[in-house]
Amino acid sequence: MGDASQDSVVTRSRLAADLRRLGLGDADSVMVHAAFSRVGTVLGGPDALIDAVLDATGPGGTLLSYQDWEVGAEIWDDDGRVLDVFRDEVPPYDPATARSARYIGLLAATVGTRKGVRRSGNPGACVAALGARAEELTADHPLDYGYGEDSPFARLAAAGGRVLMVGAPLDTMTLLHHAEHLADLPGKRVIHPEYPLATPHGTVWRTVEEFDTDDPVVTGPPEDYFGSIVEDYLATGAGRRGKVGEADSVLVDAAGILPFAVAWLEERYGA
């Protein structure tokens, strides 16, 4: 039925051992980004990696996943307003049923459909979580400035949480949008997208205010500059590199990389 040898198959127990070797520990809260195809031939698919993270962090651990929101089409004009032709057709955002944006990848999509998942209420900055602190870290996600104060990203750092990149490009570390929010930079771009939100009383339209996360928040940095921040942080000796399955992976402390990223930004692009 196949030609995969036993040695080439990556198992849940191997993944958990790799994660512990990388430094993931009991009761850790960890935001995971993964390019799942790089992990190898995984017995159990992406669920095995999710379970391995929860195995490594134990009953007190929590896995978080950036989700965004899958709408399926570009429905906004340049001002963030939903185009009239689509307005009556857009399904409202409902944390109970929303799907992760497809560009985020297979692991995020799998997290978002797991039993017991908690998903935050901000469509564009949505975070899903599984585990002991899932509700605490995702509840009452502000609609305005969803990467800012009291967001799941801020709470992750305050809780001593971590960020794990499993084969994922380092410039996809979503936590660094929180650093963009915190950094004192002149000319940060602000956007005002509108979203339909599901409520017990029907759909409510809400225009939110947010720093632009589709591009660097100010003019100057290259599009992939988050990767440079992470590499420079790792070069200080902070964080850990290693293999998770077959994937080159990185683990950093959220509370460590955030002030580093803020200083990195302000030194290069501040007033």
Keywords:
single chain; alpha/beta; seven-stranded mixed β-sheet; two-stranded parallel ribbon; globular
Give a topology summary.
Blueprint: E1 9-10, H1 12-22, E2 29-34, E3 41-42, H2 46-57, E4 62-66, H3 84-87, H4 106-111, E5 118-119, E6 127-131, H5 134-138, H6 152-158, E7 162-166, H7 176-182, E8 190-191, E9 194-199, E10 202-207, E11 210-211, H8 225-235, E12 240-244, E13 247-253, H9 254-269
Parallel strand pairs: 1-3, 2-4, 2-7
Antiparallel strand pairs: 4-6, 5-6, 7-13, 8-11, 9-10, 12-13
What does this structure look like?
Helices cover 29% and strands 20% of the residues. The protein has nine helices and 13 strands. It has helices spanning 12-22, 46-57, 84-87, 106-111, 134-138, 152-158, 176-182, 225-235, 254-269, and strands spanning 9-10, 29-34, 41-42, 62-66, 118-119, 127-131, 162-166, 190-191, 194-199, 202-207, 210-211, 240-244, 247-253. A seven-stranded mixed beta sheet has the order 5-6-4-2-7-13-12. It has a two-stranded parallel ribbon with strand order 1-3. Strand 9 (194-199) and strand 10 form a beta hairpin. Helix 1 (12-22) packs across helix 2 (46-57) and helix 7 crosses helix 9. The N and C termini lie far apart (63 Å). The model has no long low-confidence stretch (mean pLDDT 96).
